[in-house]
Specification:
There is one protein chain. With 172 residues, the chain is α+β, with helices and mostly antiparallel strands. It has two domains: 49 residues, Winged helix-like DNA-binding domain superfamily/Winged helix DNA-binding domain (Arc Repressor Mutant, subunit A), CATH 1.10.10.10; 80 residues, 2-Layer Sandwich (Alpha-Beta Plaits), CATH 3.30.70. Strands 2-3-1-4 form a four-stranded antiparallel β-sheet, with helices on one face. It is 37% helix and 17% strand. The chain has six helices and four strands.
């Protein structure tokens, strides 16, 4: 964990992930600080890149984007093929995530489209990208878990997960 992030920062991050529109005063009340102190901590975490931005969570079905698919993509072994592929993927709003992976595939994508027909067009476009040799798709029938928040763990949770006992703060 980042040495400049303490338990209070973690508590602030948890609260912001729960309600990104919470006031500094409300967060301060929850963590035992003043609103200006919370503001200063948030600004520091934004400046340090810990907080990368703020967003609204939108129901995809309301925008006719109900189909989710995971697409595995294989590229030729040449590194020259990666940059054009990544540029094209980066510009396509249907591609929500793109992960450069090790193993049998080159990339794993999470895409969201309106229908099987729009997925079919997207896959045809992907297969037309220079260097793409194969795509394999899995369509989600139902989303069981969809978390946008990063797990904000502190020393107690990290110790529990590793089987260790957390040290008291004064012993660190």
């Amino acid at each position: 964990m980042n040495d400049q992030v303490d338990e209070t920062d973690l508590a602030i991050l948890r609260l912001l992930q729960t309600d990104g529109r919470a006031t500094h005063a409300a967060i301060g009340k929850a963590v035992g600080l003043t609103g200006p102190s919370v503001y200063a901590r948030i600004k520091r975490m934004e400046r340090d890149g810990i907080i990368r931005g703020y967003t609204a969570l939108i129901d995809p079905a309301a925008l006719d984007q109900g189909l989710v698919a995971i697409v595995r993509v294989s590229l030729k072994a040449s590194a020259d093929e990666q940059e054009p592929f990544e540029s094209i993927i980066g510009a396509d709003p249907q591609v929500l995530e793109c992960h450069d992976v090790d193993g049998e595939d080159s990339y794993i994508l999470k895409v969201r489209t309106a229908s099987p027909q729009t997925l079919r067009r997207l896959l045809a476009d992907l297969r037309g990208v220079p260097g793409v040799t194969r795509t394999v798709s899995s369509i989600a029938l139902e989303t069981v878990k969809d978390v946008t928040a990063t797990a904000v763990l502190g020393p107690v949770a990290e110790a529990r997960d590793s089987g260790r006992t957390a040290e008291p703060a004064e012993d660190r």
